[in-house]
Write a structure and sequence with these properties.
Blueprint (H helix, E strand, L loop, with lengths): L3 H11 L5 H14 L2 H5 L4 H6 L2 H12 L5 E4 L3 E2 L7 E9 L3 E9 L2 E7 L5 H16 L3 H6 L3 H6 L2 H15 L2 E12 L2 E10 L4 E8 L4 E8 L12 E8 L4 E8 L5 E7 L16 H11 L3 E4 L16 H17 L4 E11 L1 H11 L6 E5 L6 H13 L7 H13 L1 H4 L8 E2 L2 E2 H8 L3 H8 L3 E6 L7 H10 L6 E6 L26 H13 L1
Parallel strand pairs: 12-13, 12-14, 14-15, 15-18, 18-19
Antiparallel strand pairs: 1-3, 2-3, 3-4, 4-5, 6-7, 7-8, 8-9, 10-11, 11-13, 16-17
Length: 525
């Protein structure tokens, strides 16, 4: 029988050395706990001379300062297990995004430590497009090189080839990649590519981490394009818009040109380029429908889209107007576009601001307003709440409280003097003051350029009361054309009965009559 001391020595000798992944995980746990001295205690001599505990703490706090609460650590991923220096990646997942940390382990010590650079939305889209291109060319080995180690193990090139062959058997050969939708998630980004195959369209969804490695790949039923969209009649091009370099999609008609063009401007909120709402993508409907009519259409994500609406927006000028003006100016310089026939087409808040956008540039020939309000914002909020809580009859006590609260708070936006530090509906007083000082009808009269005002009669958000405001203000003005549609809702989608929020969850398209009317009006001007 071994003596206790000898037994202890045997057990210590038998204990395996920690793996590089375990070293990286332990270091990550120290970082999360704020034990920065313990972090640097894991460094080799060379790295310890370069990075003090105080320096590591400063870099880390600066990097994660705006990402929200910490949620979890990702599984450590090793790049090349055969290499002498082991490179291990580990993700720190926060509410707002993920930080990707590269840990280099050599002889059981940490010899390198870096934060991976954050990638732009354009980089994520480009990586997803490259992956689909490699699949279409049968380059499965190259495709799997962009996979994370876990993904490569789950879907090696032989299995990837078999999956792709199943996709081709069901959908036909890949013809084109049109739209792209990029959505930020804590682990990186989800990129949905709308792909046209010979038999049926599909959405190829690539989930990419902060290193642009593929960590998920899915083939989903595609958003069905409207029947009036002829994808053979136009191409999609990427343009960078404004100081924020927003990734714009230009639906450009095929042919010689020059073509008339529109800039599509979204409603309120942090919208993507398509103004995706539930199963609907109204701005894509408009873009592809107008491009099928030989009218170029430029759409882009709002500048607060990539921050999930958390960006500091001081005014509607910051949020919407500046980027839309920049988009008009960009189109005027784009080859193939008629610089004298560029129109601002706005929806909801975008429609409200369309005259202001046009006043900001001499390159805008005219405006198209879809569901533009003429009433004060606070008043509209109260009326919407009354409508929604009354859909099933008399409002519940909860509904009565919500309506009363709005009746008390919302008039502050419209009438009362706002203080600089006031915040209403998550936006600063400066935003509401900017909006309150602006009148779409007065701006249209000042602009005196061609204007088309369209309204859905089933719209409960912007109603026929607003439309009557335009009719009254623009009476006998030859530059203005007004039309309403009895069956259309706020998204200009056909329906029956009272419109409800649930209606937006059902897949639909901007009505063909609306697209045709806009196209005919633009051709006439």
């Amino acid at each position: 029988m071994l003596a206790p001391v000898a037994l202890c020595a045997v057990l210590l000798a038998a204990a395996p050395a920690p793996t590089p992944q375990e070293i990286a995980r332990a270091l990550a746990n120290d970082v999360v706990a704020g034990r920065f001295k313990e972090v640097t205690a894991r460094f080799d001599e060379g790295l310890a001379r370069k990075l003090t505990a105080q320096a590591v703490e400063g870099v880390w706090k600066n990097a994660v300062g705006t990402l929200g609460a910490f949620k979890e650590l990702g599984a450590p991923e090793i790049e090349d297990a055969a290499a002498a220096k082991k490179v291990v990646w580990i993700d720190f997942v926060f509410e707002g995004a993920a930080i990707n940390v590269k840990v280099v382990v050599e002889d059981g010590r940490v010899s390198g430590l870096w934060l991976a650079p954050r990638q732009s939305p354009e980089a994520y889209e480009a990586a997803a497009r490259q992956l689909v291109d490699q699949l279409s060319k049968g380059e499965f080995e190259r495709a799997t090189k962009s996979f994370s180690p876990t993904m490569a193990k789950a879907l090696p090139q032989e299995k990837l080839k078999a999956v792709w062959e199943q996709v081709l058997a069901a959908a036909g050969a890949l013809k084109t990649v049109l739209g792209a939708h990029v959505q930020a998630v804590p682990q990186g980004n989800i990129v949905d590519l709308e792909c046209g195959f010979t038999k049926k369209p599909l959405t190829v969804r690539a989930v990419l981490d902060g290193r642009l490695q593929t960590i998920g790949l899915f083939f989903l039923p595609a958003w069905e394009m409207p029947e009036y969209a002829n994808v053979a009649a136009f191409d999609e091009r990427v343009l960078k818009i404004g100081e924020a370099s927003l990734p714009g999609s230009l639906s450009m008609p095929k042919g010689e040109g020059p073509f008339p063009a529109v800039v599509l401007v979204h409603g309120s909120g942090a919208h993507d380029a398509d103004e995706t709402l539930g199963a609907n993508r109204p701005l894509r409907d408009l873009a592809w429908g107008l491009a099928s009519h030989q009218i170029a259409a430029l759409r882009y994500p709002k500048r607060n889209y990539f921050t999930h609406g958390k960006a500091k927006i001081a005014t509607v000028k910051d949020e919407t107007v500046d980027d839309a003006v920049a988009a008009v100016e960009l189109l005027a310089k784009t080859p193939g576009i008629d610089p004298k026939r560029i129109f601002v087409v706005g929806h909801s808040l975008g429609a409200l601001l369309a005259p202001r956008i046009a006043l900001g540039t001499d390159k805008a020939r005219g405006t198209v307003l879809l569901a533009a309000p003429t009433r004060p914002y606070g008043q509209m909020v109260v009326e919407q709440l009354r409508y929604l809580w009354g859909l099933s009859g008399k409002p519940t006590p909860e509904g009565d409280r919500a309506i009363h609260e709005a009746e008390v708070n919302q008039p502050r936006i419209d009438k009362d003097e706002l203080k600089p530090d006031d915040t209403i509906d998550g936006l600063p007083a400066s935003y509401w003051l900017d909006l309150r000082a602006y009148s779409p009808t007065q701006s249209l009269l000042k602009l005196a350029r061609p204007a088309l005002v369209l309204q859905g009669e089933r719209d409960y958000q912007v109603t026929m009361v607003d439309f009557e405001g335009f009719k009254k203000a623009l009476a006998a003005r030859s530059f203005a054309t007004l039309k309403s549609y009895p069956k259309l809702n706020h998204l200009f989608v056909t329906g029956t009965g009272k419109s409800t929020p649930a209606e937006y969850n059902a897949a639909g398209h901007v009505d063909k009559e609306v697209v045709d009317d806009i196209a005919s009006w633009i051709r006439a001007h």
